[in-house]
Structure formats: structure tokens, C-alpha cells
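Hi F.,

I've been meaning to write this up properly since the lab meeting, where we talked about keeping a consistent format for the predictions we share between groups. The idea is simple: the sequence comes first, exactly as it goes in, then the C-alpha cells exactly as they come out, then a line or two of notes. No screenshots and no reformatting. I'm using this chain as the first example so we have something concrete to point to.
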Amino acid sequence: MDGATAVFMPAQAEVEEIWPRDGRILIRGTVAGGDSWEAGTLVVRDRESKGRELLLPAAGADSRFEASIGLDELAAACSGAEQTWDLYLKLPGLAEVLRLGRHLDDIAGKKKIFTYPAQAVAGMWIEPYYTVKDNLSVVCRREAS
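Output, unedited:
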């Protein structure tokens, strides 16, 4: 390798598309640095409550993944006036979950650049967004009465 040093890059769940519509949030992406797999789990984890999470199916082919969050199910899990859920991908054979985000492009600061429509479900507004670290999360806010 002519004196070059190999650098290990852990697998990461790289989001490519987010489609919030029709009562769900569809997420498509790739697993960079990971092996091929066919089925995994989308972990929707309450940021404030340790251990509170929804486990949803994630389909895969080669290094690609697709998962969907049903907003009725998410709204039913929301208990406060505002609740944030962080998104992870659990793959067979990996001990750690992979945080969903978008890091391999040339765009930093996605929180201020990309916005997605909120959907009204069961008295709540539910909206996906990028965090300050360019990870993907979902916020649920109760409608003002």
C-alpha cells in the first residue's frame, strides 16, 4: 500500500430520501461500510425516556434500506406536549445500532437547510427533521387547544 495507512470506517445508516406523507414517514438510504442484509429493524427511540422505543421492520437489499413510520402508532406513543424521537437502524450481526443521518455529502448544517412538512395526526403535528449533528429525528407536538 505504499506506506498508506488503512482507516477503519464503522458502518453508518446514510439517509438518502425522506417522504413524509399519507400518514407515514418513509425513509430510504444506504448502509455505508456494512455488509449486505435483507431485514433489519428501525428503532424509534424516545430521546428523554430511557428504554422507550418503537421497533419497526426495515427492508434491505445489498447495502440499501427502506423503513416506514406509521404516524398513528407514533402519535399513540407520544405522552407529552412535545416529544422527540431519534432514529436508528439495527442490523443482524451488528451489536450496536446505527444512528440514521446524512454525513457523506458536502452539505453541513442540514437542520437550517432541509425542512419537511408536518402531518396532523390524532391532535398532534409530527415532523421529521435533521439535528445539529445531521442525524434524523422526529418531533411530535400537541396542537394548541
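Notes:
The longest strand covers residues 12-21.
The first helix runs from residue 71 to 77.

If this format works for you, I'll send the rest the same way.

G.
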